[in-house]
Write a structure and sequence with these properties.
By secondary structure, the chain is mainly beta. A hairpin with an 8-residue loop joins strand 7 and strand 8.
Length: 297
């Protein structure tokens, strides 16, 4: 009888251990205030955001730059093993704490102001692991850092500086928005909505879109370039409800990480047209160069 009791007790304990282990495996995408954070062996702090190149490096506080932070840990095979999501106002905003087994990992940090958290994609035969935004959640000014980690017997404390990985295109219309229009959509291709977690460049070819109220000015879009010098094609449409009123296609818009391209011209002229122009891009995020969109004859 005594042995039976011990056998029953052992079964119960074994079942509890399995349950706990199962819960720990599923605990992905939690906030940094999780109960096991106190025993973290990897602690990461976001120290600054660098907007480069500038005449002098500019470093901003976290609260001034973004309202979402995502800390993602990948294993050697490019699989996500842990993730911490934070929103502005959360306790410990800017600090990620992880409890990881011994081994080699890659840590990726993304700072942004999209409407929610991005999705995380594992490595494939042709693509590195990546972090992706969508049209539904929107594209914003985005900063990123990535680092290879080797977790051993000693605790790791990291201070990370994030850099801007997006290009911004600003459209300044010199004609009036059609009176009947109530919204504007910019549909654009040539960049990416997904960050390669190793390089920080674009990871997939994305068809991106952004919607604006007719009163918004200027119209600004963000994308993640594939390389240092890339090009966008943008279609600017005005709508009344679901009805398309005007459409203008502008191609060969040069983009570069950490740069603003400003396009000026008639973009609501009521014609379906295709405009090509050659421009250069200023290297400073703060002072954009204006470019005149050629007038269609």
């Amino acid at each position: 009888m005594k042995n039976k009791h011990f056998g029953l007790l052992g079964a119960i304990v074994f079942g509890v251990v399995l349950l706990v282990a199962s819960c720990e495996k599923m605990n992905l995408g939690g906030r940094s205030g999780d109960a096991d954070d106190g025993e973290a062996n990897v602690v990461v702090r976001v120290m600054s955001f660098e907007q480069m190149p500038f005449s002098a490096a500019t470093r901003a506080n976290i609260e001034d730059v973004c309202n979402h932070l995502n800390f993602v840990v990948f294993d050697e095979n490019g699989e996500r093993v842990d993730q911490k999501n934070q929103e502005l106002g959360d306790e410990g905003f800017g600090e990620g704490r992880f409890t990881l087994p011994l081994g080699n990992y890659r840590l990726a940090i993304v700072a942004h102001s999209s409407n929610g958290n991005p999705s995380v994609n594992k490595r494939t035969a042709s693509k590195h692991e990546s972090i992706s935004f969508t049209n539904a959640k929107g594209y914003t000014d985005t900063f990123f850092a990535s680092k290879a980690l080797t977790v051993g017997d000693s605790a790791i404390n990291l201070e990370m500086n994030l850099r801007r990985v997006v290009a911004k295109v600003r459209f300044v219309n010199e004609d009036a928005v059609p009176e009947k229009a109530d919204s504007i959509r910019i549909y654009y291709e040539g960049g990416s909505g997904s960050i390669d977690a190793q390089s920080g460049y674009g990871n997939v070819k994305s068809k991106q879109a952004a919607w604006f109220d007719k009163s918004e000015t200027p119209l600004e879009i963000y994308t993640i370039p594939w390389q240092d010098d890339a090009y966008l094609e943008a279609t600017i449409g005005t709508f009344q409800g679901g009805d398309l009123l005007t459409s203008t296609v502008i191609d060969s818009i040069p983009i570069r990480r950490n740069c603003i391209t400003t396009c000026r011209g008639n973009i609501f002229d009521g014609k379906v047209t295709k405009v090509s122009f050659t421009i250069t891009v200023d290297d400073s995020w703060n002072s954009a160069i204006d470019y005149q969109i050629p007038t269609k004859n």
